Backbone:
């Protein structure tokens, strides 16, 4: 049974889980089956919790190992700078699309919501909190609380120190490689449960978020999905063609499992092993992919940090009757490009939204108006995030002449969770020791 399931393509397994989840969700909502809704919620919640469980050790060890692995990469500094540059370029394009759609659709006009009863979310963001929150006062506390931004900071510092120390740090680096291999192995077991998790997450979403809840925010929801779709299926393909001279169809064939898992799990970091394997399948050198993907999973957020906050800021301004000028739109773009790390790879983008609202001087209570539909929006946002995290290293590798174009052209023709590879994550995902 298990071997037969493995031979069934992973993408189709997730698609089947999605279809069954929609069917069960409609059944639960139409017949008011509270027990079924609760069961679906529990199944989905457990899947997300299992993904989150691996986040702290996965992020820390992956970044430490990836930074140290740059020792064996030619022109490592240039690759890192080009990666950051392309992160910024794609974020700027994405936020421009978000602003353009907001001005075109006026998502907040005519919306009938209880503005007076709106409350600011419990977790908010400000530039002061963002900057002071990067450095942990207690390293252990950062791991216990799952503060990804602080874990990233620690990992970058430790990785850079290990890189400079050299041979004396090899035992520590070897330990990190071993821990990373163990975490990845365990996480692949969780990822195999993605079809079941999809069933629970999608089923609960359909059962819980009916048209009566979505109707007042239908224009805004549509704008977010359209904006993300434009970035996914127009901007990224154009960049692949123009900057990398690459066939976009082959890219999506190779990256689709990661995009699909991101859509249902709503976690860039939880999807990171699948993203990295997909990027390697696309022909990106393993040493570079092991740096670019973990770094992107924690800082590259075109959906959560660019399209969404731009549209949401315009929505909140219109609902509260606040006029936004050219300077405000430039501020939105600046916050989106510079503040992406505030989303830190976990589910949700409320911190990024409140950071944008506070920068513009808009009421933080406006974010509370969107909390109810945030899970619905977060699916397409995270899918866009992960697609961007795969696009950038692919383009950079192509422009540097290090992309294996034969592998790229054959991407997607072999099952991502093929038994011979899924059972050996360390062989596939680890950088070659320097």
Residues:
């Amino acid at each position: 049974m298990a071997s037969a399931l493995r031979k069934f393509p992973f993408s189709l397994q997730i698609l089947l889980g999605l279809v069954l989840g929609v069917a069960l969700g409609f059944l639960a909502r139409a017949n008011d089956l509270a027990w079924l809704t609760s069961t679906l919620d529990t199944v989905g919640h457990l899947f997300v919790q299992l993904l989150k469980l691996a986040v702290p050790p996965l992020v820390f060890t992956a970044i430490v190992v990836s930074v140290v692995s740059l020792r064996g990469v030619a022109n490592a500094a240039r690759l890192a700078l080009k990666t950051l540059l392309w992160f910024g370029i794609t974020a700027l394009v994405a936020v421009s699309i978000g602003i353009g759609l907001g001005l075109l659709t006026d998502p907040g006009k005519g919306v009938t919501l209880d503005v007076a009863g709106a409350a600011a979310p419990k977790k908010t963001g400000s530039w002061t909190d963002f900057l002071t929150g990067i450095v942990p006062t207690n390293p252990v506390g950062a791991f216990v609380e799952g503060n990804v931004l602080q874990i990233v900071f620690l990992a970058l510092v430790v990785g850079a120190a290990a890189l400079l120390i050299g041979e004396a740090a090899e035992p520590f680096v070897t330990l990190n490689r071993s821990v990373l291999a163990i975490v990845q192995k365990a996480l692949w077991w969780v990822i195999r449960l993605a079809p079941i998790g999809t069933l629970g997450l999608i089923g609960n979403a359909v059962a819980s978020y009916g048209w009566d809840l979505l109707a007042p925010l239908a224009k805004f929801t549509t704008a977010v999905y359209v904006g993300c779709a434009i970035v996914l299926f127009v901007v990224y393909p154009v960049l692949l063609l123009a900057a990398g001279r690459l066939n976009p169809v082959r890219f999506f064939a190779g990256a689709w499992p990661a995009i699909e898992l991101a859509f249902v799990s709503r976690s860039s970091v939880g999807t990171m092993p699948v993203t990295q394997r997909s990027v390697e399948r696309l022909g990106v050198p393993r040493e570079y992919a092991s740096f670019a993907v973990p770094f992107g999973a924690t800082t590259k957020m075109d959906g959560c940090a660019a399209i969404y906050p731009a549209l949401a800021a315009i929505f909140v301004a219109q609902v509260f009757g606040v006029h936004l000028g050219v300077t405000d739109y430039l501020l939105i773009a600046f916050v989106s490009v510079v503040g992406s790390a505030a989303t830190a790879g976990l589910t949700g983008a409320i911190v990024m939204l409140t950071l944008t609202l506070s920068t513009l001087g808009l009421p933080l209570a406006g974010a509370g108006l969107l909390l109810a539909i945030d899970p619905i929006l977060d699916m397409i946002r995270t899918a866009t995030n992960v697609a961007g995290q795969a696009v950038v290293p692919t383009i950079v590798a192509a422009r540097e002449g290090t992309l294996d174009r034969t592998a790229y052209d054959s991407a997607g023709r072999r099952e991502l969770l093929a038994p011979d590879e899924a059972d050996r994550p360390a062989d596939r995902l680890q950088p070659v020791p320097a």
